[in-house]
Amino acid sequence: MVFAAPNEALARAEEVLDADPPPLHASVAHQVIGIWQRDFGDMRRALAHLRRARGLAARADSAEREADVLATLGVALVHSGRTRDGLAAFERGVARGTGHTRARVLYRRAYVWWVLGRHGEALEDVRRAVPVLRQANDVIWTARALTLRATVHLALGAVERAEADFGAAEALWDTTGQEHDKADAVESRGLAAFRSGDVPAALRLLDEAEERYAKLGTPTFMLTIRRCEVLMAAGLAPEALAEADAAIVALDGIGGQSTRKAELLLVAARAARLAGDAQTAIARAAVAVRLFAAQRRTWYETHARLVLIEARVAAGRGSGRLVADAAAVAERLAAFGAPAAPEASLLAGRIALGLGWTADAERHLAVAARSRHGGPPLARLTGWAAQALRARAAGSTRGVLEACRRGLDVLDDHRMTLGASELRARATEQGAELAALAQRASLVSGGPRRLLVWSERWRATVLSAPPTRPPADPVLLSAMTAFREIAARAEEARTDGGRPVPALEREQRRLEREIRSRTLHMRGEAPGDGNRFDVGRLLERLGDDIRLVELAVLDGRVHVLLCGQGRVRRFEAGLLAEAEREAEHVQAGLRRLAHPGAEARLPMVEAAGARLQELLLGPAAAQLGSGPVVVVPPGRLHRVPWALLPALRERVLSVSPSASSWLRARETAPPPGGRHVLVRGPGLASGGAEVPELAGLYGGPPRSQDARPGARLRTPTSIARPGAPTGLDGHRPGEAEGRTAAGTPASTSNGRPAAPTPPDGHPAGETDRPRDAGAREGMSGDDRSGETDGPTDAGTPASTSNGRPAAPTPPDGHPAGETDRPRDAGTREVVSGGRSGASDVRGGDVVRAGVPTVLEGDEARVPRVLEELDGAALAHIAAHGTFRADSPLFSSLRMADGPLIVHDFERLDRSPYRIILSCCDTARFASVGADELLGLVTALLPLGTAGVVACSAPVNDAAVVPLMLALHKGLNAGLSLAEALRDARAALPGDAMHRATGWAFSAFGAA
């Protein structure tokens, strides 16, 4: 009973003892209490009860009873760290027991061998026990023995054998009422899924096991250890560290098993190292090594020593002694048959390379590289990393790039098995070293074009394919509805009383954990599309007018890759760390400028913008030409307000997470129908005053919900005029939410001076533009054949009036992208400059498809908003925005019924073609993985959105209104988002507040 209904078994055992039972019955009762305390409580009490049970068995003169108790006592002694005494108890138990009882004793000794990491002895004892247990028709103990054997197989990397045993055990468990053992079987299947590389299935099964344990009311320390391993593999090391540390505290609180504490310390050390906290990793690993050594658990001690060496290297303590230590650890792990052996060999080789010991490095790396041909994805990745380092040491650029390509292909395949965008983003951290090695090799040999290819290879990969659409899971949908309700109530309580309500906030956090947990279970639906970034295709799309500026970071320095006019040039700029600090200063300045009376700070913010330009663009700033510019920054520079940089201030400017995502946005066609959706959330200081005006701009009186007969139409209201009272929307400390208020401007001229045109010839910096028909500047001889450097025809594209290169004209006379259908009522019309006719898909011409849908008041509820947003051509959302650095996919827009979060957007079949978020902090992201961003904008881009306007800082609420009106006026005139935003900035007054508001908004994508 103690494993079927633990608490009931404990109560029954205590009842037996209260009835003054005979020694045999009392022995059983004390043994049950000892088992309960051993596994779920205090080890000291467990040992006391088990010793009492053994004495009573001896008094009852029952050798079989005494053998059984000795086995339970042996497990308890080993778990308390007294390994020698525990093994001695097993020796006596095996000697005292016979037949069926001895088989049960052997099974428990096999379990102890597994705990000690002595897997050969464990398999031998199970081999002896299973036939006897089967012969006795002992279903429960046979299933336990098969589960244990499967777990040992997993520790040795034999996943197929483990899965066979798990399957056989589970079939037996289905015939019993052993609920605790059934939960353990589910947990073990989760471990098997993890070992085979299926992270979503592992998380789902471990969560299911946790639910089963919770119903039994039993602690789950072993499950925590396994869950932490999966979280680390998924790139969630900080969460794994927090869970492990919390479990250690809980275990200490009940006086629990010393063996489990050592294992939790080992997991915490690994998590701290992966999270970049080397000192914490060293501290946890050192204690784990001491505990494992005292417990005579050599297998685990060796693994702990590996983590300790890794942490010391991460802390900058590389030395010859560490090379020897890592090599010794690798040999011991290989002797154990441990899957971690290649990691230790890679570590030894990496340290040796750092010391210049090339011969030693080659020996260790060659051993590690063997793992690249088989095993789970992360083991193969280890092998390819070792192979890349071998090639670098041998001076083979081609070998480095081939190993990096193969390794990243392995990780690509693994990443696409993950359905959740968060897991896909975080998994890329595993490939950061390979991507960096390839970039360095490209920098030394290969020219700017190759560096661009490798910069793109592992940048913003999450945006390369839509995330798996969340399933129609009733539990998930119910949790999301409950989350919105609780979040809305908590926000209302804070607004009304000025104080948070702890009970509501606790429930909100619980629901967030449930939602996140269920979304992490999603498995990827399909492999990637296999498309590789093509420099020639990018240059063709850019033409002669557009410049794309991709910033690559190598060894802490920014390298500017300037693409356009058929070539790629490289310039060196400043240090990334200095640019990050300057960007934070700029953000602080913009926050202050959102409030009236801060005009004195404007010169300081502008000066910081000039410093940022020098650090981020360097000499490339003078080579941007006069046309549109696309900036592709690394993830760590996502908070830079690019429009503040002097060289970009008057330009048509857009931002993209990668050149590949810009190309996809450029080639995304708008949806049919051209629906416009305008959403006004609650609580804005200006009341979202631009929304009624925009409704009038896009077709007269707005329609609420849709144009069904009898629907009530709202008349546009007028916005605040200059001189209206100003007021600041309240921000809670530490949380940027909403917009602040101020006056509204008159419009100004849109005229701007053209930027200087660079002279003929080669500007400063590297170039891969051909000097003549047979030579290329800055290119090495091992570049791929067939690579083109520019247009192959005689002419260069002319630019359109919108500042974009005209597409080549095919023989039928229609420009590319233009349709030859009759121009009837279904065609779109350009309304600026007297032009008419079918619009260019990327020209930004708005589809005039009737009056817009306006959602406001109680109609601006999340389900209704999502229904209207799905497949819209243009959406404008005026609402409070909240960025969650701790959990970026819970960043939100406040609707009438609560927050609209990123997880909601991921349920759309197709997000709006263009979306304008006139809210604070909607362009803020969390930088995770190798070079990935999580946030509202990056959730929209893979779902069909080609262009977004969003804000990276708190802004003045009323100052946003004229900016938005001017922006939409440009869109209605056929401009792109970037062109309209440029003109809208120029239309604002020149005071500090309005200028800061304009700088805070950016156009993302290419629509």
Describe the structure.
- With 1007 residues, the protein is an alpha/beta fold.
- It contains 37 helices and 18 strands.
- A seven-stranded mixed sheet has the order 7-9-6-10-14-17-18, sandwiched between helices. A six-stranded mixed sheet has the order 5-4-1-2-3-8.
Identify low-pLDDT runs. Answer: 702-849
Strand content: 5-15%
User: Helices and strands: which structural class?
Assistant: alpha/beta
What profile does the largest beta sheet have? 7 strands, mixed
Q: What is the radius of gyration computed over CA atoms, rounded to a whole number of angstroms?
A: 33 Å
Strand arrangement across the biggest beta sheet: 7-9-6-10-14-17-18
The count of strands amounts to: 18
- How many DSSP H or I helices? 37
Organism: Streptomyces viridiviolaceus
Pfam families: CHAT
Protein name: CHAT domain-containing protein
InterPro entries: CHAT_dom, TPR-like_helical_dom_sf, TPR_rpt
Helix and strand arrangement:
Blueprint: H1 6-18, H2 23-40, H3 43-59, H4 63-79, H5 83-96, H6 99-116, H7 119-135, H8 139-155, H9 159-173, H10 179-195, H11 199-216, H12 221-233, H13 237-254, H14 258-274, H15 278-294, H16 298-314, H17 320-336, H18 341-354, H19 358-369, H20 377-393, H21 397-415, H22 421-427, H23 432-444, H24 447-457, H25 474-497, H26 502-520, H27 535-542, E1 547-554, E2 557-564, E3 567-575, H28 576-593, H29 602-616, E4 629-632, E5 653-655, H30 659-666, E6 676-680, H31 690-697, E7 703-704, E8 766-767, E9 853-856, H32 862-869, E10 874-878, E11 881-882, E12 892-895, E13 898-901, H33 902-905, E14 914-917, E15 926-928, E16 932-934, H34 936-940, E17 947-951, H35 957-972, H36 977-987, H37 992-1000, E18 1001-1005
Parallel strand pairs: 1-4, 4-5, 6-9, 6-10, 7-9, 10-14, 14-17
Antiparallel strand pairs: 1-2, 2-3, 3-8, 11-12, 12-13, 15-16, 17-18
